[in-house]
Write a structure and sequence with these properties.
mainly alpha; HARBI1_dom; disordered N terminus; two-stranded antiparallel ribbon; 133 residues; metal-binding
C-alpha cells in the first residue's frame, strides 16, 4: 500500500497523445508524470500564484524604468541601480501614481542548476510540511 510520495519523482511514460502532450514533457525533455503528495501539490499551486504576481511586478518595474532591460555596469553598481528603481517604484505605488502599460517581455532565463540544489530542496520540504500539511 502507498500512502504518499516523497520528493516529487518523475515516472517516465510513453508519449501522451492529443493536444495535452506537452503537459507531460518534463524539464529533462522526456514524457513523464510527476508524483506528488497532496501538500506538495498545494505548495506548488501557492508558489505558482506568488511567482505570477512577482513576475507581473517585475514587468511593471522594467516598464517604468527602461534602464533595467540591460545595464552595462559592474554587478555592484547594477544592484544599486536596481535597488533605487525598486525604491522609486514603491514610492509611486504608495502615491497611487499611474502604472505604465507593460509590453510583452521575454521571460527571464532560469539557471536550471539552481533549481535542484539540496539546500533549496530541504527548505521547500520544510515549508511544505509546515504550511501545507
Amino acid at each position: 500500500m502507498v500512502i504518499g510520495a516523497i520528493d516529487c519523482t518523475h515516472i517516465p511514460i510513453s508519449a501522451a497523445l492529443g493536444e495535452h502532450e506537452g503537459d507531460f514533457v518534463n524539464r529533462k525533455s522526456f514524457h513523464s508524470i510527476n508524483v506528488q503528495t497532496r501538500p506538495e501539490n498545494k505548495y506548488n499551486v501557492a508558489l505558482n500564484k506568488t511567482r505570477v504576481r512577482i513576475e507581473m511586478t517585475f514587468g511593471v518595474i522594467k516598464s517604468r524604468f527602461n534602464c533595467l532591460r540591460g545595464l552595462r555596469v559592474s554587478p555592484e553598481w547594477a544592484c544599486q541601480i536596481t535597488d533605487g528603481c525598486v525604491v522609486l517604484h514603491n514610492i509611486t505605488t504608495i502615491r497611487k501614481e499611474k502604472t505604465p502599460p507593460v509590453p510583452f517581455l521575454p521571460p527571464d532565463v532560469v539557471d536550471p542548476i539552481t533549481l535542484d540544489h539540496p539546500t533549496g530542496r530541504a527548505v521547500r520540504q520544510a515549508i511544505t510540511e509546515h504550511f501545507f500539511n
